[in-house]
Structure formats: structure tokens, C-alpha cells
Design goal:
Elongation Factor Tu (Ef-tu), domain 3; 323 residues; six-stranded parallel beta sheet; Rossmann fold; alpha/beta; six-stranded antiparallel beta barrel; single chain; 2 domains; 10 helices
């Protein structure tokens, strides 16, 4: 997938385009991107996405903006996984926020992105004062020669698949429900960096992963699977992870992701890993001393292994039933 920042590079041909923040790339987003690909194949158009950085709510009200589900890199990787050919990343700033809906259509959609077919979510608004909507786009399409369609929301057991719903599930520690809304386990990417080696002193060596989520949507201790250690096609390794501020050691201002991998020994420094959060074991806690912390980590490891054993048994049980 080709990624362009800003609008200096025009599309090389007519596009079918969708626009949005795509935070988390959940089932609703994936349904929209599937429709995008279908239209591209049918009408011989380039499938393209326009997204924004930062999230508009982070620009207008940074203190009250919701936690991000995905960093820009994670979002782009997820969009690429859906088969999109082109993505434009627009810097959301005061100039863009003040751009009228009409000029947004003319200068961005028509002149730069060469839109012939536009697909938007049912709640899409754009332009200064959020005045742009489906009706305005449909009128513009009639004048400029592009089609516009609105996608209905995707529901799961009566609940709308949305970034807000995923955040709520993660905040509640309901990883299974978050995975259903996303269509995959929730994951965070990051690079392994040197830590203070406290894990080794406790008997549980950890990979300390630098994350760019200043306000992560989940905190606590989790059973996890980790990709990226033995190549992209290798099966994930199982482990237990703590995502938080380490109140029992040296409470930090920035969240840390520490992963202990089962039955693994090796140097992972500099490796870019993908950590999938499968099940929440407990909230982060402050312990009175290292002995209490060490005992709890041992229990966390045991509980995580029990989770994976039960998961394997359920999967094998379903296979036997199918046979």
C-alpha cells in the first residue's frame, strides 16, 4: 500500500474513496473497506482511503479525547491488510478544520484524489462546522460526476460495531467482546527496548516494549500471544503481560508494556513485536515488597497457562463435535 502525507501527491487515476478516522479498524470499518474493494474491482478504480492525524477530537479537545485504539502505524498496517492500494494521511490542523465543505470537495476530493465513487459511514460529517453531510456530497457528486453511497452500521447482537464500543469493552476488561467487535484480538505493536532488568531479579524475564499509546485503552495483566519473534508467518508465542505504570517498583508517568514469554530464552532487543491481548487476569496493583510481587507474578503465569490450556481444550472439543 502506498501512503501519502498531505495532498502534494495526486492520485494516479480515478479512485473509489472512503474517508474516516478508522481507529482500531473494527468490523464496521472492515465492512466498509470490503465494499471499497468490490467497487474498485467492478468499476476498475483505485481503492483509496483518506484518514486524519491526529484524530480531530484530539485537535479540538486534547484533554478529553478518548484513548486511541491504534497508533498511526498500526492503523495503516490494518488498512493495508484489508487490501487497500492507496492511503492519504491528512494532518488535521486549524487550516483543515476551517476549510469549508465545498472547498474540501473541490480541492481535495476532486482535484487531488480524483474521486469517481465515494463511500462514507452513515454518521460522516466534514468541513468547517461539520456542515458537510451525505446530502451535500450527493449534490456535489451530481455536479462533478462522482457517485456517493452511505454504508449502514454493522451490528453484533444488536450492538453497533464502533470504536467507542471497542474502547468500552477494553476498559471493562472484556477482551473476548472486544475481539468480536474487531474481528480479531486487540493488539498493540512496539519495539523491545532495554529495561531495568527487574523481571530477571524476580525470576520472570520480560521483554520491555516501547509503545506510543500515551493513554492506552486498557490497563492491567493479561494472557497474551506475541507475533514477530520468528518471522511474520511463524505461530505466535504465549505469555503474560503487564500494561501499566508499575506502582510496586518505580511508578512511571508513561505506560509500559512488559511481556514474559513462556518457555523462551533469547535476545529480543530491537525486535518489533505484535502483542495480542486475549484475556484479562487482573488489574494492576501495588505490592508491599518484592516477595509479594514475585508470588503474584507466579500466580499470573499459572493463571495465564490455565487460560491457554482451557482454550486449547475448547478448540479440540469443537473439532471433535464437527467430526
Amino acid at each position: 500500500m502506498l501512503v501519502y502525507r498531505g495532498f502534494l501527491q495526486a492520485a494516479s487515476g480515478p479512485t473509489v474513496l472512503t474517508i474516516g478516522n478508522f481507529d482500531g479498524v473494527h468490523l464496521g470499518h472492515r465492512s466498509l473497506l470490503a465494499r471499497l474493494k468490490a467497487i474498485a474491482a467492478r468499476d476498475h478504480l483505485l481503492p483509496a482511503v483518506l484518514t486524519f492525524e491526529p484524530h480531530p477530537r484530539e485537535f479540538f479537545a486534547p484533554e478529553s479525547a478518548p484513548a486511541r485504539l491504534s497508533t498511526l502505524r498500526e492503523k495503516l498496517e490494518l488498512i493495508a491488510d484489508e487490501g487497500v492500494a492507496l492511503t492519504w494521511v491528512s494532518h488535521f490542523n486549524a487550516r483543515l478544520a476551517a476549510l469549508s465543505a465545498e472547498k474540501f470537495v473541490e480541492h481535495i476530493l476532486i482535484d487531488t484524489l480524483c474521486v469517481k465513487h465515494l463511500i462514507i459511514g452513515d454518521d460522516f460529517r466534514f468541513g468547517a462546522g461539520r456542515r458537510g453531510n451525505f446530502a451535500l456530497l450527493r449534490e456535489a457528486g451530481e455536479r462533478h460526476g462522482f457517485q456517493v453511497e452511505a454504508m449502514d452500521c454493522v451490528t453484533l447482537d444488536g450492538e453497533r460495531a464502533s470504536s467507542s464500543a471497542v474502547r468500552a469493552a477494553l476498559a471493562e476488561g472484556n477482551m473476548e467482546h472486544a475481539a468480536r467487535l474487531l474481528g480479531r484480538p486487540y493488539a498493540i505493536d512496539g519495539r523491545v527496548v532495554h529495561g531495568d532488568k527487574i523481571g530477571r531479579q524476580l525470576g520472570f524475564a520480560t521483554a520491555n516494549i516501547r509503545i506510543k499509546h500515551n493513554k492506552p485503552p486498557l490497563l492491567g495483566v493479561f494472557a497474551v500471544e506475541v507475533k514477530g519473534i520468528k518471522g511474520p508467518d511463524a505461530p505466535p508465542l504465549k505469555g503474560v503481560a503487564n500494561l501499566g505504570f508499575r506502582p510496586s517498583i518505580d511508578e512511571t508517568l508513561q505506560p509500559l508494556l512488559e511481556v514474559h514469554l513462556f518457555d523462551f530464552a533469547g535476545d529480543l532487543y530491537g525486535t518489533h513485536l505484535n502483542v495480542r491481548f486475549l484475556h484479562k487476569l487482573r488489574n494492576e496493583m501495588k505490592f508491599p515488597n518484592f516477595d509479594a510481587l514475585k508470588a503474584q507474578i507466579a500466580l499470573d503465569v499459572s493463571n495465564a497457562k490455565s487460560f491457554f490450556t482451557a482454550k486449547t481444550q475448547r478448540r479440540e472439543g469443537r473439532k471433535e463435535s464437527a467430526d
